[in-house]
Amino acid sequence: MWLGARWARLTSPGSWASSATALTTYSHNCAAGAWSHRPRTASPSPSVQKRTPLMVHDTPALLKAARAREEASAALADVQAQQPEIDDLTADVRRVCWPAWKEAPPVKTRTEQRTRTVPKTIDGNTHQVQETYTVELPVPPADRDAQALTAVTAIAGFIVLGAVVWSTVAIGALLAMVGPTWTAYMIAFVFDAAWIGCLVLEWINRYDPERARTPRKAG
């Protein structure tokens, strides 16, 4: 309705001094933000006519956009005014929470000797000779899982060794009551060796329950 009334008022008889001049003037006014409907005495330059097509704007929308632009400018000014405080707070957080904010941890390296083939000219003849050079290679971080597994394996081996020693001593002491001491302890060690062998066979056949059943029962 508003657009029809504006268009009717714009196209009423006597309101245009010249059709082309009035149309161009209205287009230029819309593009420039002016809302006067009086035709101008002179037409805009050809560049303006080419750059500003016929456009119809909504005045409340333009006012709303202008207010939003002013609010955004005010908010930006507030942020810029508070920027020193923000920088100080950021510096405090970095200093307290991350002492080495800008300092990367040093990378451990190891030295390795390598050999490469390089050309070497002797008496006008070029030969390929071997040259030794040194490179620095980064050392990967320690694998904590592998270290823990190694520690557990060592503990298990120590326990097995203690069990073998204690079993050999106990069985040898019992057999020494009925025979020579060295023979008794040798036979006791045979019992322990057979037990260790059954454990190894059971571990080798851990994915085959049928084959692992026999060494498990024997052990």
TrEMBL record:
It comes from the Bacteria. Keywords: Membrane, Transmembrane, Transmembrane helix. The chain crosses the membrane at residues 148-176, 182-204. This is Predicted protein. The lineage of its organism: Bacteria, Bacillati, Actinomycetota, Actinomycetes, Kitasatosporales. It comes from Streptomyces viridochromogenes (strain DSM 40736 / JCM 4977 / BCRC 1201 / Tue 494).
